[in-house]
Amino acid sequence: MAQLKLALMDMNDGIANQGMRGLRNIVKEFIEPEDHGISTGPGPDSHRDHPGLHVDEFEVRKKHQVPGLDYNIYLSSGGPGDPRENIEGQENQWYQLIDQIWRHNQTKEDKKYVFFVCHSFQMACHHFGLCDITRRKSTSFGIYPIHKTEIGKKDPLLNDLQDPYYAVDSRDWQLVQPKRAIFKKYGAKILSLEKIRTHVEYERAIMAIRFSSEMVGTQFHPEADPEGMKIHFKNKLNRDKVIKNFSEKKYQKMMKSLDDPEAIACTYATVIPGFLNRAIHSLTSVGYKEHAA
Q1: Looking at domain 4-136+145-224+266-291, does it have CATH number 3.40.50.300?
Q2: What's the gap between Cα 232 and its chain centre?
């Protein structure tokens, strides 16, 4: 059987972040044993009953790298900036890639699977015209409860999570006012909404959408792991930055949440690993070898 290939797309524009570290750690569990790491451009075994992946990493915004259509699975990270901005060059090719994947999946048996995180999720929603994207009154930063919709309660992405479940949320933008006609056109479904806030009149933002059977995304960060987050935010520079931008209370609350086994640890272990397992199982069950170039 031909080896399956995963494209890991870095959308952080060269800015230091924890998201890519988390994504790399997750996909390492799916890499073929003979692969000694993730390559940085084209070109420990876990408990699984399927062949491992070959992973290539692409720095889309900083180094203008965009994968082609020859990958089976795509993970696109979070990142900074206004997701509504008109972009040029390689970033525009990111949109072109998403369109190519969508068209491919309409007619081909060997589907291509995509997971969008945070900024990439916002960009995809904007591209498909699914909802309005507005700047939040204040930055959302911390670990928060996220609620499943009725459809989300039945979706395999969230099956193994409680309702509400908890995840890291870090954003200046929000997705609101879903366009029902466009959702119906694409067959997209809202899976989750942000925490219930009875003390304010703001609309609850959309936190997860299934664009299709093969394409799904989250506004939150399912790649955030407790141990890595604790190490990062115990660093004095990072701790002082959180306290300065938010508060000492916010910092202490977040650090306490990282010790809760029912919080983001379950989200980290469930969402993206589950997506990858289901994608690999689906690809191998249709006989990927017959369709491989």
Answers
A1: no
A2: 20
